[in-house]
Amino acid sequence: RQTQWFTEYAQTYIGARLGVGTGILADDATAHAVARQVADTGRLIPGTPQFQSAFNRVIADGDLTTGAKFIDNTKFRHVDANYNFSHLTSEIADIQIGGSFREYELNSQGTIFTDIDAPITYNEYGAYLQVQKKLLDERLKFTGSVRYDKNEFFDGFLSPRVSLVYTAGANKNQNFRVSYQQGFRNPTTQDLFIGLNAGRAILVGSAPANLDRDVRTFALSSSGAALVGTDQVTLTGRAAYENAYSLSSVLAGNPTAVNTPLVQPEEISAYEAGYRAQFGKVVIDVSGYFNKYTNFISNTTVLSPLYGQAGDGGLSLLALQNGDRVAYQTYTNAEVDIESYGVTAGVDAKVFGNFDIGVNYTYADLDFNQAAFPDFRTNFNTPNHKVKASFGNTQLFENFGFNVNYRWSDTYFWQATFADGDIPSYSVLDAQINYEVPSIKSIFKAGGSNILGEEYFSAIGTGAVGSIFYVSWTINP
């Protein structure tokens, strides 16, 4: 319908400018007005009964290609237990144990997951042991722990962690900390069981039982119908993983068949070091981290031919040529290790008597060769640089205080199922004043967020964030 609108507008506009049918050459404004009148015929106008009827129909339709309704009655049941043995073992170490069990019940009636016939259930459980011990006149604190987790679909994992915190200085005003841990992340419910046509691609989770539950019928082109003798075909989600070409190879004109491995748990080795100190009215905090991911979980986009087998050199290539193909987003793991790292540094201080000032800087980056793996999506979605600053005084004068906060974010690239794109750099200024009235046990506040009014957004597809101004009255009886 969008194409129809633009076609009618363009044809009418050009015709008016050329004087078609009237012999009078219309100016730009007149041609535009005439073209809008023609193109807008039958267009739904907000506030009209026709618009409301169409709106109600769309929000009640669970097919994302024609409607906007999601049904999600998903739930999970969780229980955990912990016990601290410190009162029995404190002379040796502080020891704590615990465990948990969780059961998922996915119930979207087929609008998100492949649960159109019945809810999908699965479970996971885990247990841990933690030991803490203080040494060197209680200046050195050792913490060691190990956890075992088991998901119904994957092998169990052990997650060890060790950390050391050393308190230095005559007044114990400096802390040095280091830690190392191995961990993992199980695929999410969507990684495993999603079955959703998101428009630009059909999302198919890679749990083995999920592949054959995503069943869809596709119409063929006239050329395709002549080749295979039918005007439509039915594919399951298995085609995304076992009969597909990589999107980048097709766009480059050199289709390459790919078999996408099913998603496995993501593993991480994490290192962290930090320093925190207080010198009089100044507090300094600096930390850095380095993470190495194996089997990093993310997505690839592939094209499945509606007939033929990818790589057959014949029928499947004709399917691509005839437009008889479907885009899928798969859930899998990176073929190579991925590294992320970053630094955070902050200073907070009392200045000019009783004023509070603080500055914080964060750097974050991801080491991944996107050019070598163009179809793989990390969804890092994090700016390299961020800055926060604050200035205020809780008692500028009796019962009156204020605070001003400033935030700045560097530009960054956003990746998501819905859309990709650059997020421009933005700055935000927030401010608040407050006045306390003890006689009525009340605090009055007035302030605003993004008070400079420059709209910004932090993700593709979200609305722009504007300003919010508020007043409040809080009573503490």
What does the main sheet amount to?
15 strands, antiparallel
**Proportion of beta-strand residues:** over 45%
Per DSSP E runs of 2 or more residues, the count of β-strands stands at 26
- Unreliable spans are none
Gap between N and C termini, in Å?
60 Å
Molecular shape? globular
Q: Helical proportion?
A: 10-25%
Count every helix, treating DSSP H or I runs of 4 or more residues as helices.
9
Strand order in the sheet with the most strands: 1-2-3-4-5-6-13-14-17-18-20-21-24-25-26
What's the multimeric state? single chain
Mean pLDDT: 93
Structural class: alpha+beta
Radius of gyration: 30 Å
What are the defining features of this structure?
477 residues; alpha+beta; 15-stranded antiparallel β-sheet; 7-stranded mixed β-sheet; 15% helix; 48% strand; globular
